[in-house]
């Protein structure tokens, strides 16, 4: 059994996990959590606590690059966007992405949002109204591996849940990005690549996405979780128990 408690904490915060009452409180106020609070039994018990804070931790990746050109933007009058699914192996805030790409002309900023999944298709922005990752075209230069970071991440991901990275940019004929991917061989078992071309990107109807396997099985991408920088907090453990007599 395990529980997940997400949120931001400061040095003065006190978090209490009450095994008897099956509650979690932050500074005396109930907070939501996922999972089941375990019950300690007579005898030996193991307690494992994992924190995610400073430093970026690589989680998912597909780094096979065969020079496949995946357009995002408007090369010649038709707008394109791309979507790559993935399944994180750990929970936490998605704070950094790496992709392999180049630009033609001066497209608008590349926007990458995280969508939820519904029926193996991108459904909706995981956080309504969130802009996600925005990277200006000036970052692409001559092309190559592009690192995109977010110091105040929008998206908290749950391990084992499928998500989609949705790539878009503003409409500007002749100005676009080309992102790289693998060949038609499936190099990433936990996801796939979709494409949409039309007047509104991403499409209003998820069924309008088209499978890209005939061109590229997966995009080149790496996902990192954590919040980067140096740790500015410490954690003290206090375990309280009540001795009971039978």
Polypeptide structure, described:
The strands form 4 sheets. Strands 6, 7, 9, 13, 14, 16 and 19 form a 7-stranded antiparallel beta sheet that branches. Strands 8, 10, 11, 12, 15, 17 and 18 form a 7-stranded antiparallel beta sheet that branches. It is built from no helices and 19 strands. Helix content is 0%, strand content 37%. The protein has strands at 3-4, 15-18, 23-26, 29-30, 34-35, 57-62, 70-74, 80-86, 92-104, 110-117, 122-125, 133-135, 144-149, 156-157, 163-168, 175-179, 193-197, 210-211, 221-225. It folds into 2 domains: 1-53 and 231-246, no CATH class; 57-225, Jelly Rolls, CATH 2.60.120. The two termini are 27 Å apart. The protein has 246 residues and is mainly β. The model has no long low-confidence stretch (mean pLDDT 86).
Mind sketching the topology for me?
Elements: E1 3-4, E2 15-18, E3 23-26, E4 29-30, E5 34-35, E6 57-62, E7 70-74, E8 80-86, E9 92-104, E10 110-117, E11 122-125, E12 133-135, E13 144-149, E14 156-157, E15 163-168, E16 175-179, E17 193-197, E18 210-211, E19 221-225
Antiparallel strand pairs: 1-5, 2-3, 3-4, 6-19, 7-16, 8-15, 8-17, 9-13, 9-14, 9-16, 9-19, 10-11, 10-12, 10-15, 17-18
Task: Quickly describe the structure.
With 246 residues, the protein is an all-beta fold. The protein has no helices and 19 strands.
Rg result: 22 Å
Helicity, in percent? under 10%
Shape assignment: elongated
Count of beta strands: 19
> What is the domain tally?
2
